[in-house]
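Re: that chain you flagged

S.,

Sorry for the slow reply, it's been a week of failed gels. I finally had a moment to sit down with the sequence you sent. For the record, here it is as I used it:
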Amino acid sequence: MSTRTLIRGGLVITAADETHADVLIEDGRIAAIAAHGSTVAQGWTADRVIDATDRYVIPGGVDAHTHMELPFGGTFASDTFETGTRAAAWGGTTTIVDFAVQSQGQPLRAGLDAWYAKADGQCAIDYGFHMILSDVNEGSLKEMDRLVEEGITSFKLFMAYPGVFYSDDGQILRAMQRAESNGGLIMMHAENGIAIDVLVEQALARGERDPRYHGEVRKALLEAEATHRAIQLARVAGAPLYVVHVSAEEALAELATARDKGLPVFGETCPQYLFLSTDNLAEPDFEGAKYVCSTPLRPKEHQAALWRGLRTNDLQVVSTDHCPFCFTGQKELGRGDFSKIPNGLPGVENRMDLLHQAVVDGHITRRRWIEIACATPARMFGLYPKKGTLAPGADADVVIYDPHAEQTVSAETHHMNVDYSAYEGKRLTGQVETVLSRGELVIEQRKFTGRAGHGGYVPRATCQYLG
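Prediction finished late last night. Pasting the structure tokens below so you have them in one place:
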């Protein structure tokens, strides 16, 4: 027996338009949308009616960059697929794309199967996977073709972390050529890791060991240089390129130059680069360790450039790079040596609210909020129009958002499995109130009503956004 849900009286916001409309949901999908008060809408009946008066009705967020249970530096990211996807739901995100990891010397399939097993039956919301290539060889290149057919249509390479994830320019070029032929999308961590390792060694030799030096050695110019190099390699291969976690004005300038030439080059930034800075990394008593991530936080003046890039579409997506490590027992591994601090920040629960604050502050419009957080990541990674929009036939991933609610971000009230908040004490206007995932209530009036295992694996099409 099918259940029908009617969301009545809200302001429906998509990347394309805003309209006071009612939304009818049936069998986990959006059945129809009609103007509020219209004859059509007045004729609808439903088993459950949600009053969205004075609320926004928006698509569930798509966070295309998370790392649940990621092994890093001798420890693991503290959120499991169960805790991390529950926290995502609390924050209005209804789909994540996480990263399966190929270990050195292992086939891609072994890494992918390990991540399937971690997530299976654990997720509160839907999920997909990218594949991290850490060993590019003839075998893994052939496997890329098979993975694209299976719905793993994006592959991440690293110009950083020599000895762990690093690929040299020849390996990167080969992977890009393969992606050009099989329709996959290469995602790039663009930092010159070889040069950074020299600067790390020199800083430690000088006795510079505090967290703030993490930001000082991972120089913006080395992000820009790697971004430039990745773009040129992609041009040689004739392949599209997606640069993850862009943090620096100079790196953004490389993307803008490429896009001005009409090249299929795309960029993502993250809330930490828009709201935090090297001031946080320099917090005393090792508190700066909480903010160690790569690419690193930059001086505040980079923020204006990133906001401008989001407005001009030189940056298309805001993801979180959610990779939490507890301060106690995990970040502390780097006391006395910043290079041993696990790299990553928690944020999957905060992204939609922080970006709504950006609307309140005038950085972006409401429709742009939905575009960079829902629609474009869904298009970029082959999930649209099933995800990322509100339209007949789309999955009923819907958020009822209260734009007037006041909240203060705190580790005491968040749902991520980590002992600090990167945004502790930040006051925000706007809050997620109710969340549906494929028509099923997972958050109802600020109460979690979902369950582990509701979320399903979503195979993805190839990139649909080469504009």
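What I noticed first: The chain has a mean pLDDT of 97.

Talk soon,
D.
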